Amino acid sequence: MELAVVILLLEAAGLFPAQLLLCFKARRRLLRRLPLLLLAGLFLLFMGLTASVGLDGDAAGPIFLSLGIFMLIGQLFCALAWLIWGLCALIKKLRA
């Protein structure tokens, strides 16, 4: 199995349920946003490393680029969890 598939599966199986749990159980907004903030920081770090190393000369550039893209996909998983949480809150509010 390729490394990219393993990372995507770990994000889907680990990050998404963890973010859902944080959305439904955490009371503080900062705690709910912690995974997104960490992933955004890592994304900016890897994009900066990609820009500083470059894509053509070294083999590290594409690796940093792919890691940055995986962090971006992790942010999408966090956004999906927030969407589910928001829809549940809206449905709960409409039923009351």
Question: What does it look like?
Answer:
It is a single chain. The relative contact order is 0.15. The mean pLDDT is 88. The chain has helices at residues 3-25, 29-53, 60-95. α1 (3-25) packs parallel to α3. The protein has 96 residues and is mainly alpha-helical. It has one domain (3-95).
Short overview:
This protein is mostly helical and 96 residues long. The protein has 3 helices and no strands.
Keywords:
mainly alpha, about 100 residues, elongated
Whole-number mean pLDDT:
88
Rg, alpha carbons:
16 Å
- Intertermini distance: 48 Å
Helical amount: over 70%
What is the string of SSEs from the N terminus onward?
A: HHH
Largest sheet: none
| Strand percent estimate | under 5%
Q: How would you sum up the global shape? A: elongated
Indicate the low-confidence ranges by residue numbers.
none
Structural class: mainly alpha
Number of helices: 3
Number of domains: 1
The count of strands amounts to 0
Write the layout of secondary structure elements.
Elements: H1 3-25, H2 29-53, H3 60-95
Helix pairs in contact: 1-3, 2-3
